């Protein structure tokens, strides 16, 4: 049996290490549990993110009435084009005898170069619009070139714009009304060097009117219409017509599945992302497969065997496979489940079903929204709504994640306590070894002195 005095420093350190390892064994086990719980939280986080994206995509089919299910086409896009929103009534609208709205254009007689200073001194230039609005600019004699005048007019951002047209024979100052329509007509008055640009219909002076300001005019299904602009936003409810040229055109407004089809496709894509995320975290990889493959993808999912995850996947798939309303199924509008457990979508099938019965298709899409919205809300929850008065909802994923975090916090507290106890035990053990070594050393010295003393006395008596 070894005593402290017979142990070397290396042996003592080895003993302390062995005790330390034994005391810290529970910490290692608890750390493994923390790592496993964190892996579960990460897996639920991946699924939660995919479900959140699915929830976001559902917003676009939440209110079918706001989705534009109308399309407007023109038989003569050189004359008129059109767009329609969801409120537009279907039908055909004939536009005849179209004459475009125009703005007024004036140009001066030929002058010197665009940078030549005009004679006549400082002055003002005033524009009076037919709408009654007036605009005035003032220029000093040192800023009296055609370029200076045009820049000063344009700086106003008012009802008149100016430009300079330069030719080999000289330059002209051009005034254009900023808008179209009869109310955009204007007259000009000036003083000083600017007096030469004065114009009115009664007294045009040296200015030449290249174009008069006029309203657009046309007949819509035989009804005369005028407009200050070439964009007609109120002539037909829900339809905006853009006039592009003179002549005749026919605009047709019809039901269109394009916007709704695109929204359903987005939902299908987001649903596949969610299904893929769940499959990744719940997949099973056999021992042979995981041994043969070196990549991390060969490992089974950390949620393998988790009922909540597997059930969520099944319910998401069932929301599509069991979808039915008004004699239509999911397959009838192009939504089908593949053998790989994904959702495919055919816009062609959707368009075909929509053309036959738009309202039935819209009803079916609304039912799809309700089913998926209930599932996503149950999984990730929902915030309280002041608009509807609905209370906040905690999803089961959040509940499980919260429970796991609580478990981790509890384990970490245990680890901290065990670490403190182990540290105190090791410290006390080291003190005991040190005290024992000191005691053993003192005993050895005493024994040596006694040996010397006894040896000397024996010699004297002899």
Side by side, the strands of the main sheet go 1-15-3-11-12
Order of helices and strands: HEEEEEEHEEEEEEEEEHHHEEEEHHH
Strand content: 15-25%
> Main β-sheet: number of strands, strand sense, barrel status?
5 strands, antiparallel
Mean pLDDT: 88
Structural class comes to: alpha+beta
Rg calculated over all Cα atoms = 44 Å
Q: Which terms would index this structure?
A:
462 residues, alpha+beta, Immunoglobulin-like, 3 domains, five-stranded antiparallel β-sheet, four-stranded antiparallel β-sheet, disordered C terminus
Give a short synopsis of this structure.
This protein has about 450 residues and is α+β, with helices and mostly antiparallel strands.
What does this structure look like?
This protein has 462 residues and is an alpha+beta fold. The protein folds into three domains: 151 residues, no CATH class; 71 residues, no CATH class; 107 residues, Immunoglobulin-like. 44% of the residues lie in helices and 22% in strands. The protein is built from eight helices and 19 strands. A five-stranded antiparallel beta sheet has the order 1-15-3-11-12, with no helix packed on it. Strand 13 and strand 14 form a beta hairpin. The chain is elongated and about 125 Å long. The two termini are 40 Å apart. The N terminus and C terminus are likely disordered.
């Amino acid at each position: 049996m070894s005593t402290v005095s017979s142990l070397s420093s290396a042996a003592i350190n080895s003993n302390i290490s062995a005790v330390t390892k034994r005391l810290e064994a529970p910490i290692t086990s608890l750390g493994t549990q923390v790592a496993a719980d964190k892996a579960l939280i990460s897996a639920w986080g991946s699924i939660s993110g995919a479900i959140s994206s699915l929830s976001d995509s559902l917003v676009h089919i939440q209110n079918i009435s706001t989705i534009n299910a109308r399309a407007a086409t023109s038989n003569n896009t050189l004359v008129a084009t059109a767009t329609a929103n969801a409120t537009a009534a279907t039908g055909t609208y004939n536009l005849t005898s179209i004459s475009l709205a125009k703005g007024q254009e004036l140009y001066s007689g030929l002058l010197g170069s665009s940078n030549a200073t005009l004679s006549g001194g400082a002055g003002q230039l005033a524009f009076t619009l037919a709408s009654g609005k007036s605009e005035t600019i003032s220029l000093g004699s040192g800023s009296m070139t055609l370029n200076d005048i045009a820049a000063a007019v344009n700086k106003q951002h008012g009802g008149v714009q100016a430009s300079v047209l330069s030719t080999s024979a000289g330059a002209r100052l051009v005034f254009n009304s900023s808008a179209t329509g009869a109310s955009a007509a204007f007259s000009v008055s000036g003083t000083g060097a600017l007096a030469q640009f004065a114009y009115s219909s009664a007294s045009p002076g040296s200015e030449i009117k290249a174009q008069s300001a006029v309203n657009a005019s046309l007949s819509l299904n035989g009804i005369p219409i005028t407009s200050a602009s070439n964009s007609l936003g109120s002539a037909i409810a829900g339809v905006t017509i853009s006039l592009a040229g003179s002549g005749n055109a026919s605009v047709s407004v019809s039901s269109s599945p394009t916007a709704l089809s695109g929204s359903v496709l987005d939902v299908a894509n987001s649903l596949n992302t969610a299904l893929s995320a769940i499959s990744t975290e719940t997949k099973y990889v056999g021992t042979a497969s995981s041994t043969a493959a070196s990549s991390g993808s060969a490992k089974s999912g950390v949620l393998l065997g988790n009922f909540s995850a597997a059930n969520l996947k099944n319910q998401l798939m069932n929301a599509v496979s069991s979808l039915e309303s008004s004699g239509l199924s999911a397959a009838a509008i192009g939504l089908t489940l593949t053998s790989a457990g994904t959702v495919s979508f055919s816009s062609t099938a959707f368009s075909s079903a929509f053309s036959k019965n738009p309202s039935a298709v819209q009803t079916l899409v609304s039912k799809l929204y309700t089913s998926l919205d209930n599932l996503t809300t149950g999984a990730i929850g929902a915030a309280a709504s002041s608009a509807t008065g609905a209370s906040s909802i905690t999803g089961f994923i959040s509940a499980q994640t919260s429970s796991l975090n609580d478990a981790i916090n509890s384990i970490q507290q245990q680890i901290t306590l065990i670490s403190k106890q182990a540290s105190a035990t090791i410290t006390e053990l080291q003190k005991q070894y040190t005290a024992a070594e000191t005691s053993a050393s003192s005993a050895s010295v005493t024994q040596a002195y006694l040996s010397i003393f006894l040896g000397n006395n024996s010699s004297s008596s002899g």
